[in-house]
Amino acid sequence: MSATATAAMKWTYVTRTLPHGVSMAMGEWRRPPRPGDLVVGRITEIGVHDHAESRNGRRMRLYGGDLIVGALGNRYATDLYEGYVIDSPSAHLLTAGGVVGSVVSSHDALSEPTRVEIVGGLVGATGVPLSTEDFAQPAPATPMRRPPTLVVVGSGMNTGKTTVAAALIRGWTRAGLRAGAGKVTGSGSGKDRWEYLDAVVRPRTDGSLPVVQPFEVFETAWVLYNLARANHRPAEAHRHLLGLAQALGDDGVGVSREGLRPDADDTALTLSVLHRFGYPISMGPLRPFEGVNFFMTFPLERDPSVTTNAHVLEVLQACSSFPRQHLLQQKLIRFLRDARVDGDHWVDKWHSSPFYATAHAVFALLAPAPDLCQPALRWLAKAQREDGSWGWFGEGSAEETAYAVLACLAAPPAMIAGLRLDLDAAERFLTQPQEDQVLPMFIGKTLYGPTQVVRSAVLAARILLSRRAS
């Protein structure tokens, strides 16, 4: 389909799953038609629906003569219309989401529906008519721990189904649970989806949405790990440690106790933290993630993570002796050795700064492979800025400076002797007032900045620097 023709059409919300870049054109529509068929219709008369939802959910005004892309479907809505897929080009807009069908009855209080003339169908490169079924998401894999499921049903529209579901989601998330929601049947519109999101998201003044919420396991584990690196173990940590211990299962743990499936990174950090605070641990929860040459963050991962494997190596060293321990240690050391950039530092897919990846690799390798740490420490020393900071993106940041300081001070004094490190300048940089907003350097679906995690790293570095001075 030409760019001009595409731009002239209004693509409704039911087309949101159509991938960009796939060859599509307007051709003949399927006869006899069936629900889900993607069609192009011309607005011939504006009625009740004078707006439609775009692919991203924005309301767009409709005018006579507009060409819209929608999907054929049936609808039985007691307060609106009863409509069906009929083999006729004369049809109606049944929903704002772009469902097209022929109205056979309507509520007495309604005016006429918006009329649509079907002028064609969407066809693929081979000329075969396309349907929403062609772009349906594959069924997800069965989770190891199936989350509890609650179904909300009602006798018709406007009975409060969405209101009840949104209230439940709101209550669960405020209680610290991770709730997912979906609508099995409906009008093909985005309204309910936005209500579910509004129920999950805490009020924010800047209009933004969090990438992941909640992520209490990730946040707790990383904060306590950073503090423990400075040998700082606050008494208040006890209840958080109990929470981590309870969240950890035989197959590991994910960023939250409920929600995303377990991963090796959160599992390893949780085990490491529990060990540092005196809990007995084993490699058992990490076994599902072992690959041939490395440990996978998630099963079937093809681009392994440096920091995940570094964290697994730390856990391995903390465990009691077992038969394969040495073989696993050598596997992890080989992977980290081969993953170096220019032979002296590391980068990782979960954090955009090499100072994070390099610091965590150094933490793991100092005991079993100190020869791999010496070049990294020299690289860190050369990367320090004149103001005492470290930073990869144009200027120094407190977070990156903290990682570099923690790595250097984790090494024995003999390893950093002779390096041009100005730790006094680093301490001055870290003790000056910092902005409340942290830089987004962690990598998820987007860049994000977990505030408490970053602050705990900075605090740990400041604690170690102050002890050095005293």
Structure write-up:
The chain has 470 residues and is α+β, with helices and mostly antiparallel strands. The protein is 35% helix and 12% strand. A hairpin with a 5-residue loop joins strand 4 and strand 5. The protein is elongated and about 85 Å long.
Main traits of this protein?
470 residues; alpha+beta; Glycosyltransferase; two-stranded antiparallel sheet; elongated
Secondary-structure arrangement, i.e. CATH architecture of the largest domain: Alpha/alpha barrel
The largest sheet is: 5 strands, mixed, barrel
CATH topology of the largest domain: Glycosyltransferase
Radius of gyration, in Å, reads: 28 Å
Quaternary status of these chains? single chain
Q: Percent range for helical residues?
A: 25-40%
Helix count, per DSSP? 14
Structural class: alpha+beta
Note the gap between the termini.
72 Å
Identify the overall geometry: elongated
Which consecutive residue ranges, at least 5 long each, have pLDDT under 50? none
Number of strands: 13
Please state the average pLDDT score: 89
Quick one: CATH class of the largest domain?
Mainly Alpha
Strand content: 5-15%
Side by side, the strands of the main sheet go 3-6-10-9-11
What is the string of helix and strand elements?
HEEEEEEEEEEEHHHHHHHHHHHHEEH
